[in-house]
Amino acid sequence: MSKLFSLSFFCLFLLAIPALAHNVAAQDADFIKQNPGALFVPFIYLGAKHMVTGYDHLLFLFGVIFFLYRMKDVAVYVTCFAVGHSITLLSGVLTGIHVNPFIIDAIIGLSVVYKAFDNLNGFKTLLGFQPNTKAMVLLFGLFHGFGLATKLQELKLSSNGLVGNMISFNVGVEIGQLVALSIILLFMTWWRSTQSFAKLAVAANVIIMTAGFILMGYQLGGYYVEQTTAKDAAILRSMPLVARAVEGSVR
Fold first, then answer.
1. Number of domains, the chain
2. Range of 191's domain?
3. What are the E-state strand segments in the chain?
4. CA 195, CA 138: separation in Å to the nearest integer?
5. What pLDDT, on the 0 to 100 scale, is given for residue 136?
6. Do residues 197 and 2 touch, judged by C-beta distance below 8 A?
7. How many angstroms separate the CA atoms of 64 and 148, rounded?
8. Is 163 within 8 Å of 95 (Cβ atoms)?
9. CA-to-CA distance for 68 and 188, rounded, in angstroms?
10. Long-range contacts of 193-202 (CB under 8 A, 24+ apart)
């Protein structure tokens, strides 16, 4: 009974995560657009909110700490992740480096797949080698940071107070990460104390990997639709009569 309850709780936890909003909420975006300039506290709130509701970031963190029992190890890996996403979050927004959001989010989904595969000892068993886990967490942290940057770039942020706002947002992200990490650690501490953990650890990581593949497929599908729509629009524009009709309908 305990095993069934644990697995059910874990599945419900994972199924509930994608229901959370991942993009910047409309009311938050409107507030930022209507109030240009230095907004330190709102951006701290926005960063924390985005991390706590960022299901892809949470899934990756969940996988990272799944088999970490010592707080020292948790701190090292979480620091690697924080350094990675801080670098690309700040540089992406402040320098204007833009990467297609669908591709970045697909890579973030891949990071979830990687970590679950690593937890299942897949690299050693199937491929005969083991990547440096800390380096991989840092590497994927860089992509997670670009994912955060793309969400902010969609807001067309004012250059007035941008540096301070981005630092505030990053501080908020770290606060949100600590909050989410605390909840995950509490859950993992409880689960590890039950007999079901050893029995269900493999199944749990298979579920995490599946969720990662779903995220990848969803984002790659979005990229395909975006590119197909852009090509169709380009073809229409190349046809003078159709272009005029389209322009007339828009007007």
1. 1
2. 2-250
3. none
4. 33
5. 97
6. no
7. 19
8. no
9. 10
10. 194/2, 194/6, 195/2, 195/3, 196/2, 196/3, 196/5, 196/6, 196/7, 197/6, 199/3, 200/3, 200/6, 200/7, 200/10, 201/66, 201/67, 201/119, 202/120
State both tokens at 114: 């990687």
How far apart (Å, rounded) are the C-alpha atoms in residues 237 and 107? 32
Tell me how far apart the alpha carbons of residues 202 and 185 are, in angstroms, rounded to a whole number.
18
Rounded mean pLDDT of 41-65?
91
Are 136 and 5 contacting, i.e. CB atoms less than 8 angstroms apart?
no
Query: Is residue 22 pLDDT above 70, yes or no?
Result: no
Q: Is-contact 137 80, C-beta < 8 A?
A: yes
Number of alpha carbons in the 13 Å side-chain half-sphere of residue 237:
6
Q: What is the pTM of this model?
A: 0.82
Distance, in Å, from the CA atom of 234 to the CA atom of 190, rounded to the nearest integer, reads 56
Q: Which residue has the higher pLDDT, 3 or 113?
A: 113
What the block records as the tokens of 87 is 């670098």
Q: How far apart, in whole angstroms, are the C-alpha atoms of residue 58 and residue 101?
A: 18
Task: List, in order, residues 6 or more apart from 77 with CB less than 8 Å away.
Answer: 64, 65, 68, 133, 134, 137
Over residues 176-210, the pLDDT tens digits come to: 999 999 999 999 999 999 999 989 999 999 999 99
Tokens of 20: 């959370």
Distances (CA, A) of 101 to 36, 91, 168, 196, 211: 24, 16, 22, 38, 19
